[in-house]
Design brief:
The structure holds two protein chains of two kinds. By secondary structure, chain A is mainly alpha-helical. Chain A has helices at 3-12, 18-44, 50-71, 82-104, 106-110, 121-148, 159-186, 189-198, 201-204, 216-222, 226-238, 249-270. Chain A starts with a helix and ends in a 7-residue tail after the last helix. The model of chain A is unreliable at 1-13 (pLDDT under 50). By secondary structure, chain B is α/β, with parallel strands linked by helices. A five-stranded mixed sheet of chain B has the order 5-6-3-7-8, sandwiched between helices. In chain B, strands 2-1-4 form a three-stranded antiparallel sheet. In chain B, a hairpin with a 2-residue loop joins β7 (190-195) and β8. The two termini of chain B are 29 Å apart. Classes of the chains: A mainly alpha, B alpha/beta. Chains A and B meet through α1 and α2 of A and β1, α1, β4 and α2 of B.
């Protein structure tokens, strides 16, 4: 089709006035809120144990790896307690992966909603991302809170850094999800290669090691992975004994901005290709 | 009011691009009910989705004044695992309307009884359409986009829809797509025929019928 006609039409459109921008933002917040509430029902409401599963899955990983650590006689580096050591790693990692996973399916699962013109792909991804963040923050608090009862003294070193790490993990997952979601519209093959592409990250994102405990050459390579920076941040904020000075929030931010740039451009490009019926 | 300026839409198929809407220029004025006739597959539903803004054209521009509804009909818009009530609340939320008011109105208008509190996936297609109509009536749009209204519900429900639209004739316009002239005659004062990507308007319904029968 004539792209020129579309472009000239876009140019002819007036620049939005400030109050229109405010109205647009209000509408978008309303939509994200409504979709998030709806997603809560569909994500957890499918079976009776919906909420419980969200908690059981990370608990299962923590239990498995705590058992493995015990069997091979390993302890977490720097005298960190095993439960929060694994919880910080598993939850931060899961937050990135689950959010990207949910985001990548945002269109497929919610095509019916795009029927309403005020609902756009970005709203679906924002809503799903917000829901995942809320879920994982709750799960993390429950696990760490439960564990805190078993120790004589409990203190989080720097809550703000923990939250910062979680926030970056959530945003990274959202940005990644947006890219996958847009690519999914182009070709469903993307969905098939996503699994094998993502899976190795489980072993290299610091779930059961820290950047400081790695040999220098390997560490240099491992630090290219932005998820490792997220787990490092969460751990350094959580444990007074862990400095985590390899964690670089700016580096994660760069990934997020780049992925958002790619994802938003792609989404714009594939928007007319989404088949509604 | 909705204005289309050389709106073009094509779908990619295995045998190349299939042009559904070909540089369509049209104006749908306020408070005028217009019927759009077309064969199955002529692109009626696509046109309706583009009018509503759910789908973007490949080229061209759409200017809307006033609140335009989503395309009301059998398909789309509801989440099967949520109840009719939950779906109603969702729609009230995204349109920024009063939740209780909308839910209450939709429930009374749709007349689907206890199904209102059951998952939409358990609904018959007629019940889905009833709910969709109830909701759209609750929301007070300036332009209603309606997809194949004829088959919705029994006689009494059809009478109810007709009465509701008649009530609104002073404030709202209706754009109905259908492949049946009877429907258009019941609701509309003007009609257009969509054929081979082009949309031709007729002031007179008989002329429209003639033109439609010539292509159908």
């Amino acid at each position: 089709m004539s792209d020129a006609a579309a472009t000239s039409a876009a140019h002819a459109a007036e620049t939005p006035k400030p109050h229109e921008l405010v109205r647009g933002i209000v509408t978008q917040l309303r939509v994200v809120h409504a979709v998030a509430l709806r997603e809560t029902r569909t994500r957890f409401g499918a079976n009776q144990l919906g909420y419980v599963w969200a908690l059981l899955e990370p608990l299962f990983w923590i239990g498995t790896f705590a058992g493995l650590f015990y069997l091979v006689g390993r302890t977490p580096p720097g005298g960190m307690a095993i439960v929060p050591f694994l919880a910080t790693g598993v939850v931060a990692y899961d937050l990135v992966i689950k959010t990207s996973d949910r985001g990548s399916q945002a269109i497929n699962a919610n095509k019916a909603l795009l029927f309403y013109p005020q609902v756009q792909t970005l709203d679906l991804i924002l809503a799903r991302g917000a829901l995942e963040m809320a879920t994982f923050v709750t799960v993390f608090s429950l696990i760490v809170g439960g564990w805190a009862f078993t120790v004589p003294r409990f203190r989080i070193d720097d809550l703000l850094t923990v939250m910062g790490g979680m926030g970056l993990a959530g945003l990274l997952g959202m940005a990644l999800g947006l890219v996958f979601c847009a690519l999914n519209v182009l070709t469903p093959t993307v969905d098939r290669i996503r699994g094998p592409l993502i899976r190795p990250l489980f072993w290299i994102s610091g779930l059961f090691f820290t950047a400081e405990s790695l040999p220098a050459t390997i560490r240099e390579m491992a630090l290219y992975n932005p998820i490792l920076h997220c787990t490092e941040m969460v751990r350094s904020g959580f444990f007074p004994s862990y400095s985590g000075h390899y964690a670089d929030p700016g580096y994660v931010g760069l990934w997020i901005v780049s992925l958002l740039f790619i994802g938003l451009t792609l989404e714009r490009k594939v928007r007319p290709k989404v088949q509604l019926t | 009011m909705i204005e289309l300026q050389s709106v073009t839409k094509a779908y990619q198929t295995r045998v190349g691009d299939h042009v559904v809407l070909d540089r369509i220029d049209a104006t749908f004025p306020e408070r005028v009910s217009i019927g759009i006739l077309g064969k199955n597959g002529a692109g009626k539903s696509t046109l309706l989705r583009i009018l509503g803004g759910a789908e973007q054209p490949d080229a061209g521009k759409i200017v809307r004044a006033g609140r335009v509804s989503w395309p009301i009909g059998f398909s789309g818009g509801f989440n099967g695992s949520l109840t009719g009530e939950e779906n109603s609340r969702f729609i009230a939320r995204i349109y920024g309307a009063d939740l209780d008011e909308i839910v209450d109105f939709a429930q009374r208008f749709a007349e689907i009884g206890e199904y209102f509190r059951m998952p939409v996936r358990t609904y018959s297609s007629g019940m889905r359409a009833r709910l969709a109509f109830g909701l759209s009536m609750a929301l007070d749009f300036d332009t209603y986009l309606v997809d194949e209204v004829t088959a919705v519900g029994d006689k009494s429900f059809q009478a109810k829809c007709h009465a509701a639209f008649s009530d609104r004739r002073e404030r709202s316009s209706v754009i109905i797509v259908s492949h049946q002239m009877n429907t258009i005659r019941k609701y509309c004062s003007r009609a257009a025929v969509l054929n081979k990507g082009r949309l031709s308007f007729f002031d007179d319904l008989d002329e429209a019928q003639e033109a439609y029968e010539a292509v159908a």
